[in-house]
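Attaching the record inline, Q. Sequence:
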Amino acid sequence: MAAATARGAAASGRLMSIGQVLARLEAEFPALTSSKLRFLEAQGIVRPRRTESGYRKFAASDVERLRLALTLQRDHYLPLQVIREYLDDVEAGKSPAAPTGGALRSIVPASRRYRRDDLLREAGAPSQLLNEAIGLGLVPGGETYDDRSLAMLRSLVALDRHGIEPRHLRALRQSAQRDVALVEAALAPLRRRSDATSRGRAAEVAAELSRRLGEVRESIVRQALEQLEG
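Structure, as predicted:
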């Protein structure tokens, strides 16, 4: 019966294949692959329907659930277990607190692309500041920019008001690159495996390690500032 329902829904265009889901989410999550999607299914993040032949079929609600889960993982480095429990509570009709501590709308930003002039206007940034940021690799160059580029440029504008220019952040970028090297070394055993579960697990561990390194960095800075104030 479920398979027949899936066939009927697919015929009417209400259900999507893995390829169609990836195409919908590609702009927001370019690192998403069919292997990671299957891993997320195994972790209970998404539960697609199956046809009699075993093909996965996703509803629009599945895509939105995936979009929210991937946003929480990418922008807030939350473990998949926390994300799954939050999503399950929402689907059960409960009103759980957002796992980030903020309002739900703050963790599901609308996907948007900005042209250069729009980006500068939204960030309140001079053209030269953006040029310097692109030259230093703080903002990726291109014809259009995403919300992360906007957030970065806004931060650079705020720092610039206090005399901290993009060129002063070279050491910070180099430190971030060393963090990436640490994460890559830690993930090497998982990435040597070819199965989809290991590749998906590697993506989850990478997000967790990134979050932990960020916490350590923030703690070090705070301790140093407290010593200056003392």
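The chain has ten helices and five strands. Residues 175 and 181 are 10 Å apart (CA to CA).

More tomorrow.
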